[in-house]
Give the backbone structure.
Amino acid sequence: MSLTTVATTTKTVNKPNNRKSAASRKTKNRQALSADKKQTVLVTGCAGALAQQVINRLRDKYNIVAVDFREQSYLSEEIPCYKLDFNKRVFEDLFKQYKFDSVIHLGRIQSSEETKIRRYNSNVLGTQKLLDLSHKYGIKHVLILSTYHVYGADAYNPALIDENAPLKAAELTHDLVDSVELENLANIYLWKYPDLNITILRPCNIVGPGIQNSISRLLASSYAPSLLGFSPIMQFIHIDDMADAIMLAHTTNHPGVYNVAPEDWVALQDAIDVSGCRRIPVPSIPPILPRTLATIAGLKMFPSYLINYFKYPVVIDGSLFAETFHYKAKRPLKEIFRFYKEQKN
Amino acid sequence: MKFKSFLKNTFVSHALDKKLEKIEKPVGSLGYDPWGFNKDTNKIVFSLFSSVYEKYFRVQTHGIENVPDSGPVLIIANHSGQLPIDGTLIGYAIANREKAPRQTRAMIERFFPTVPYIGNILNQLGAVLGDPINCAKILDRGEAVIVFPEGIRGSGKLYKDRYKLQRFGSGFVRLAMAHGTPIVPVGVVGCEETIPAIANVKPLARLLGVPYIPLAVPFIFPAKVHLTFGKPIFFDDEELTEEQVTRRVEKVKRAINTLIAKGLDEREAIFE
């Protein structure tokens, strides 16, 4: 089954994004690919703000093919964009058609979205499919976006957790099992198929314009739930800085696992205040109480599975990434929080 | 943040602000470091604590110049008094000394981060969860670390056991060896009498998930405190068995016992 056939026979799977027909697009893309010697990059998660920032940085130097399993996006005439499920067989047709040189895998369903089973299917099994296809089609570099959540929020966490620390998130909350499994899987492939040159990035809280994760929603809201008596140290990275970090990791091939975090820290309650939020106090003891309240409230900005992250610090050490890739975040915390404050005015 | 600014403007004089600014302590753009130390909170508490240090506990220091002016150092002391008063007094003494004042980091018991408010406030004052990784990273940054190797065995002991050193953990010696760090022993006299406990209410402690609940008068007595700092002890970084490391631990323990004895000799009365 060819990609074109799928596109014309199904409505929800593998539908190229925009206004032209899939056939004409395919022809145009092939012509474009043969006309230049640019490398071709598959970017997943293209409906997300971060992926779009990365694509903006890539588009001049690379041919880009974008996919997302959540929603259909339109990026530009030159960038084919597909909505498809990685676990469907038609996903392989993209590899056959475009002959990717590298993959930037940013498409991960966050724990506040979808059911556990759907997340597991997409994040873990979908990634496995992506890695298997990358191996089969000789991809030279795979970059995978993970999260600092995999370390787990535990009262006994030391600060400046490095990449060798155990991933405790799964034992602390079942909602993060898929994040840890995704990492374990990527690590297995990292050793099993060194030719894939897998780079795994574990960033701290990514925030800024367009970011829709829990912490960004919290800072953007006028009223922010805040656990009484707890204000863990947190790290924030601006979406633009994170996109820069991904670009560096993509263009400079140093496979491995890297934390990504700026050399700056702030207590959560100060971050809430500076972002212009009004705190809504939430009782913190006994521990079951805030968890129950969060479950009842059902707020995406304050999900029950993240309660421990609002309580205990998970401070990561980003020095290995900074040294390996000569990276330094440019946007200071004040600028990040100013954006959220200005949104409220 | 506004409340903190109000407290700072109210309690921290310009002179004190300037004095504390001179103490080298790298923090991020909003005044925090990775362990939660906060410049402004530290200044406010330092200002409020000066009367407690000077007038309430009337702290007397001896040999404080033994703490090096810079570079990593482990300050090892006996632990007592149910609350972390001893660590706070040692930290204040070193930050307030005339020559080369330093900001110290006290390693605290592992249950503190689980206690609302207290854990955060201690972190903002420079206290750090007592974990070897934390200690190693802080030493790597050239900071001064206060460690109580007795842990809760020392702080939670009863009045009848005062000034009897409890078992020391050996982690601090291993860290000192691995990081080429001098150990400055400190004998603390006076904190044992601040909250004299006659029993530990273990069932209640278990129920509340804390290491001990002392049966004591709910009052902090104004015992005069003597802090006696000994000469730095250096250990070579060698491949040693646990038994050999324990012998080094015992050496530090003996030094602290000597300093405690010195402090007790100098003390004329508990509340002199």
